[in-house]
Specification:
heterotrimer, A mainly alpha, B alpha/beta, C mainly alpha, A: mainly alpha, MetI-like fold, 9 helices, elongated, B: alpha/beta, 4-stranded antiparallel sheet, 10 helices, about 30% helix
Chain lengths: ~270, ~325, ~325
């Protein structure tokens, strides 16, 4: 498939890969520890020692951005993985089985989706206290219904009555049908969902961080950084600009990649 | 080409964009249709017949280009005249019936609205009352139940009905020529017969000329005066429909006819063609050579062109005279 | 209205009511009925014993959760949302006041973005695909969708308010008493919200329009001799609108969440900001009331959107 992706899509994918690499290598790449305070060095302008200067507490912005990116990718990636795994499996199963269970589950999903996601997240995190694990689980669960719907629709589009009947006639079990016959056909949609949800998750989790519901300190978080730095932008813009630009770049690249994959999948379906 | 032809295609060569390259889809195609005449155009998938049909309406697409040749409707050059002229011909003088009637109807418009917008555009002189009457009459002729139909949406009709509505739309402004792109393909036998009966009656009453594109030779025989057989973008045989189908001369036509199931015998598997049309393996000479049971080494290099073998009957095969005297096709062991 | 349509709408309405009920349960349960020590959970680990006792008394935690839920729900249905633990005053007036400000902000943002985004989407589709105009519009839309609204808001404030001084950095609308003042106060928050919303609808409209322009029926309309403008307006546009309207409806729902973030950025006295503040103050009745009203709004918007889609789809309107 890589051959059929447009240049912009490949560029997006490349950027995401670079991000992932930087995140993994952050502990070795970052010049300083993210919470190391440099006495007397608040709001230092960018220099050789501090590429993006320092923030209000005298911490190196670059290191915080690198480690923050690690946190973001880890949390957004895990949350997305949860939602795609559960939602994908559930959606495909519902699309195959249909019948009463399908109706009931879809109605349940409709009801669950009646709570605006941010409200639900704020409530839960406010009630249980912020922790990285909680955020990952909450966001993962919040995205699952949507993924379920999309995968179910994709499954329905691929599967006809005869499809399942034929496979059953060959003596295949439900799991075998899913893995061997269905998965290759909906793989494109699955990939699109993964890519686009990661972008949404990044924005959502950063938003939580911004509102003060992110992973608790000292974990560096882009949303938290932006919130901390916004009232002192006249002293230095870098504590806000650096994470903001990184976030924008990451999500834009994810969206470019998603667009490219969507076009390929779309053309294949014609 | 007779001077009183309604439609004339003159040595039309058209390319189609395939990725970065252009490949030929029509090569040196010539045909003509006289007023009131029904010409059948037959060939397998990929022969270029649908492309030719669309070109008869002067349709331009970015992925298609005309290498050479012209299409004349009356005295208008469909690809040289101003767009406004071509637009005025479409619908009013040349009608088009697509292969898939269902998808050709705008989902958000009521049937009546579809007709009236056409009529108002092409016949602005007609008063509303006449427009309504004409719509009712047309829908009645194609067998769509009145008067509820005008207010209904396309999706409320069956596939067969949608095809008939598309036919009625093509006829509503009284065109001189009707281009039908495989109108009966994919329909079951009963619907197909009903459609053919309809077309025959229209033809009688309105002296309508038609280009009937199909891959089904038996249908062609029922409705067409003349038949043209296409292979790989070229016309290989043209002549009176009866002649072409009952006494085919070109090896390809013979194979097509041999593959027809007769009521008393199954299709002749031995006369079936090998493989399918492979555009990359088409030689510079006779394009049919790779699959032709009667091909010789020279066939691949000799350019073929239409030559008359009988009155008004031309074929593009230099070996035709030799073949006519050679062994007769297996299924027809009747002495000449 | 036809019978099947009425039945469809009725079912949808029922589902919404059910959802509303479920939401009330969720909102209450999350705050007051999760396993474990509720008071401890709400006040955090370093709460003093005295604070815990006070909270337990205020929330009547000695009574079973079902009873407390019943009381709360009954109160809500009668317009009594309880008493704020922080302000010691009834919760409802706070909610009403803040909600009306949120409605104002969201309403204006939603209304303004519709013509703008649909227009841009159509413009992009009318020009050549991936041509210069289309590409620029698409790129801008991509950016608008990729940058979170709080980042956009902060930068708008930084550039247009703090640096250039054209607009106030804080949207203190309760202190704006003239129309120009209101406009000036609302401008940046509305603009911020519009960035994300416009981007989304624009892309949907453009994609839908391209699909429609390639459809068989548009091709046939042209081959039947109809003039281009008529084909675009009567045959293409109505079929591209459905996805666009769907996108707008999704935006309306998104606003319920988006407004929370934007209100915090601009310190706008809306219901979103109230919710966030009351969570940090552990003001349970206020939290529950705000969350319930916001969720009810979300449900209502989704209901309206679904019904509108049903009404606009010919396939569902008849037969």
């Amino acid at each position: 498939m890589a051959r059929r992706l447009s240049r912009t899509a490949l560029f997006g994918a490349a950027v995401v890969v670079v991000y992932a690499a930087l995140s993994i290598a952050a502990p070795w790449l970052a010049p300083h520890a993210p919470d190391e305070v440099f006495a007397g060095g608040a709001f230092e302008p960018p220099s050789g020692a501090f590429w993006f200067g320092t923030d209000s507490l005298g911490r190196d912005v670059l290191s915080r951005v690198l480690f923050g990116g690690r946190t973001v990718l880890l949390m957004a990636g895990s949350a997305t993985a949860i939602s795609v795994a559960i939602g994908g499996a559930l959606g495909m199963l519902l699309g195959l089985r249909r019948g009463l269970a399908d109706q009931v589950v879809m109605r349940l999903i409709d009801i669950v989706m009646s709570v605006p996601p941010i409200i639900f997240a704020l409530l839960l995190i406010g009630a249980l206290g912020p922790s990285a694990l909680l955020i990952i689980v909450v966001v993962g669960l919040l995205f699952t219904p949507n993924v379920t719907r999309v995968m179910r629709a994709a499954t329905l589009a691929v599967v006809g009555e005869d499809f399942v009947l034929a496979a059953r006639a060959r003596g295949e079990s439900g799991a075998a049908i899913v893995l061997r016959e269905l998965l290759p056909n909906v793989a494109g949609t699955l990939l699109i969902e993964f890519s686009i949800r990661t972008g949404f998750a990044t924005i959502f989790i950063s938003g939580l961080g911004f509102l003060g519901f992110g992973a608790p300190p000292p974990t560096p978080d882009w949303g938290v950084m932006i919130n901390e730095g916004r009232s002192t932008m006249d002293a230095s813009i870098w504590p806000v600009v650096a994470p903001a630009v990184c976030m924008a770049l990451l999500v834009t690249s994810l969206n470019l990649f998603t667009d490219g994959v969507a076009r390929v999948v779309d053309r294949a379906a014609r | 080409m007779s001077a009183d032809a309604l439609l004339r295609v003159e040595r039309l060569s058209v390319d189609y964009r395939d990725g970065a390259a252009w490949r030929p889809v029509l090569r040196d195609v010539s045909l003509s249709i006289r007023p009131g005449e029904v010409l059948g155009l037959a060939g397998e998938s990929g022969s270029g017949k649908s492309t030719l049909a669309a070109l008869l309406l002067g349709e331009t697409r970015p992925e298609r280009r005309i290498q050479s040749g012209r299409v004349w409707f009356g005295e208008h050059d469909l690809f040289g005249a101003p767009r406004a002229i071509v637009q005025s011909l479409r619908g009013a003088r040349i009608g088009f019936v697509p292969q898939n009637g269902s998808t050709s109807l705008t989902p958000t418009m009521r049937i009546g609205g579809l007709f009236s917008s056409l009529l108002r555009h092409h016949r602005p002189d007609l008063p509303s009352r006449d427009i309504r009457a004409r719509i009712e009459q047309l829908l009645g002729e194609v067998g769509i139940p009145q008067p509820a139909a005008v207010r209904q949406f396309p999706h409320q009709f069956s596939g067969g009905q949608q095809q008939r509505i598309a036919l009625a739309l093509a006829l509503c402004c009284d065109p001189d020529l009707l281009v039908l792109d495989e109108p009966t393909t994919g329909q079951d036998a009963l619907i197909r017969q009903a459609l053919i009966a309809l077309l025959l009656s229209f033809r009688r009453e309105r002296a309508l000329a038609m280009l009937f594109v199909t891959h089904d030779l038996s249908t062609l025989l029922q409705i067409c005066d003349r038949a043209a057989i296409m292979y790989a973008g070229e016309i290989v045989e043209v002549g009176p429909a009866r002649d072409v189908i009952e006494r085919p001369r070109h090896p390809y036509t013979r194979a097509l006819v041999a593959a027809l199931p007769g009521l008393d015998r199954p299709p002749d598997a031995r006369a079936a063609l090998r493989g399918g049309l492979d555009w990359r393996a088409v030689p510079a000479g006779c394009r049919f050579a790779p699959r032709c049971p009667a091909a010789t080494a020279e066939c691949a290099t000799l350019r073929q062109s239409l030559a008359e073998v009988a009155p008004a009957h031309t074929i593009a095969c230099w070996r035709a005279p030799a073949l006519a005297e050679a062994a007769v096709p297996q299924h027809d062991r009747v002495p000449a | 209205m036809s019978r099947p349509l009425a039945r469809l709408i009725g079912t949808r309405l029922l589902l919404s009511l059910l959802s509303l009920f479920a939401v009330s349960v969720i909102v209450f349960a999350v705050m007051e009925a999760l396993p474990g020590d509720t008071a401890q959970r709400i006040l955090g680990r370093d709460a003093t014993a005295q604070a815990l006792t006070v909270m337990r008394a205020q929330l009547h935690l000695e009574r079973p959760a079902i009873e407390r839920y019943g009381d709360w729900l009954t109160g809500v249905l009668h317009g009594d949302f309880g008493t704020s633990l922080v302000a010691r005053r009834p919760v409802l007036p706070y909610i009403t006041a803040h909600f009306s400000y949120s409605l104002l902000l969201a309403g204006i943002a939603l209304a303004l973005h519709i013509p703008f985004s649909v227009g841009l989407g159509l413009l992009g589709a009318a020009t050549r695909r991936d041509g210069p105009i289309d590409s620029t519009i698409s790129a801008a839309a991509l950016l608008g969708m990729s940058v979170p609204e709080f980042v956009i808001g902060i930068f708008l404030v930084s550039i247009l308010a703090t640096t250039l001084g054209w607009f106030p950095p804080l949207a203190l609308i309760d202190q704006a008493h003239s129309v120009p003042a209101v406009v000036s106060t609302l401008f940046l928050p509305v603009l911020t919200l519009n960035f994300a919303m416009t981007a989304y609808v624009l892309r949907q409209t453009r994609n839908a329009m391209f699909d429609v322009l390639r459809s068989d029926y548009v091709r046939m309309a042209t081959l039947r001799g109809l003039p281009r403008r008529h084909v675009l307006l009567r045959h293409a546009l109505p079929n591209a609108l459905a996805p666009a309207i769907n996108a707008i409806a999704l935006n309306a729902g998104w606003l319920v969440g988006g407004v929370v973030v934007v209100e915090v950025v601009f310190n706008y006295p809306g219901l979103g900001r109230l919710l966030v503040e009351s969570i940090s103050f552990h003001d349970v009745p206020m939290i529950q009331g705000s969350a319930l009203v916001l969720s009810a709004t979300y449900i209502a918007i989704n209901l309206a959107a679904d019904v509108a889609t049903m009404l606009l789809t010919p396939k569902l309107r008849v037969r």
